[in-house]
Amino acid sequence: MIIEHIDQVLPHIAGRNDFITAKKDGYTVIDYVYAAADTFDDFVRLECRGIKFAPDGRTLARPFQKFFNIGERPETQPDALDFSAPHVVMEKLDGSMIHPAVVGGKVVFMTRMGRTDVAVKAERHLSRELAHECETWLNKSVTPIFEFTAPDNRIVVPYATSALYLLALRNTVTGEYLEWSQVERAARAMLVYQAPIHDAPRTASEFLAHTRAVTGMEGFVVRFADGRMVKAKGEEYVLKHKAKDSILQEKNVLALVLRGEVDDVLPLLDGPDRLSVQQYRDDVLTGVSRTARMISDVVTRYSDLSQKEFALGPAATMPPLFRPLAFQIRGGGEPVAAVTALLLKHVGSASAVEGARGMFCARFALGTNDNAELRDAA
Predict the structure, then answer these.
(1) In what order do the strands lie in the sheet with 229-233?
(2) ∠ CA(244), CA(247), CA(248), 5° rounding?
(3) Average pLDDT in the 115-144 region?
(4) Residue 86 pLDDT > 70, yes or no?
(5) 3-class SS of residue 35
(6) What is the DSSP string of 232-278?
(7) 20-24, 35-39, 45-49, 66-70: range with lowest mean pLDDT
(8) How many helical (H) and strand (E) elements, i.e. helices and strands, does the chain have?
């Protein structure tokens, strides 16, 4: 599909909340922010996955279009995919999609949303030679598309070293993909890795079964010679990704701790993340126990007071959140259970958690720098 100018795209996303048009310094990004039922029922909207435009409106860079999992849509059902047609099976690396663009006369790296923190990290690989190769391709209206993996850019699969992999070369205007043999030659010229290529079973159903069983990796992307693409992920990866997603916000981790469900998540987490969650669990439970004991001590010390005397005296000096707990415990409630139940009413938002922090006095922080663009791995 030919896209030469932003005016060819804007009418297709007009009035839609599922897409964003973000004007940055020297370029404009169009990307989707969530997928509704009809978000991608339009060929132009499929291209709105981080496509970039220059200030004059011409197409600046064109990363991958939106593509789907096998079995996710009618056209990606196993019986609709012909694996006898020419195709390449690439390993689906678990990092961030990166592409170059020329902005202000300089080659820079971008993610879907532009020059993000992750893109700047990836630029440690942008040597003078690589910048020259990228600019040469961009001047030919071809967008090189890379995957950036690194210990400090981890999604789920851990990588020991920082690396850049060339995934594709895509015509910026027509959207066509250059043949894999050209990608291989370009990767050698750029002095970067190329995406690992795998053999695949003969049918989509066999391929899907094979992919679901893989471990230690995300999965695979199948690119057909006509440009169609589908992906499939291992079941282990999907479970770990859901687990990782669940711990990106403190309120979710606090809820897991208070409900006693952390042990279900820990086996799905790796290294530093697992240690961070374990430490937070221990800190929260210690804080809850301390609060319960403190309030119990006050209740016990003034057990001879009437309810009114207790309310006007000791209870009145307590923090507001502690007062109902004191009366619950005074009435026979189990202290730790009372504190836990009240805290569970405060896990709905980050502000609610902050307001109740005095009850557990712990703070959650993941053990590594997390990728703010985790959704890009979806």
Answers:
(1) 68-69, 229-233, 219-224, 87-92
(2) 90
(3) 97
(4) yes
(5) coil
(6) EE-HHHHHHHHHHHHTSSHHHHHHHHHTT-HHHHGGGS-HHHHHHHH
(7) 35-39
(8) 14, 13
Give residues with Cβ within 8 angstroms of 253, minimum separation 6.
246, 247, 262, 277, 280, 364
Reading the block at residue 134, the tokens are 């990228």
List pLDDT tens digits, range 160-175: 999 999 999 999 999 9
pLDDT at residue 348, as a whole number: 93
Element (H, E) at 51: strand 49-53
Half-sphere exposure of 118 (CA within 13 A, CB side): 28
Structure tokens at 301: 């010390």
DSSP 317: G
Identify the pLDDT of residue 35.
87
Q: Rounded to whole angstroms, how far apart are CA atoms 176 and 62?
A: 10
State the Cα angle at 48 between 238 and 20, rounded to 5°: 95
pLDDT of residue 372: 41
pTM for the full predicted model: 0.74
Torsion region of 259: left, alpha or beta (phi above 0 gives left; psi -120 to 50 gives alpha): alpha
Q: What pLDDT score does 367 carry?
A: 59
Q: How far is CA 87 from CA 71, 185, 223, in A?
A: 18, 18, 5
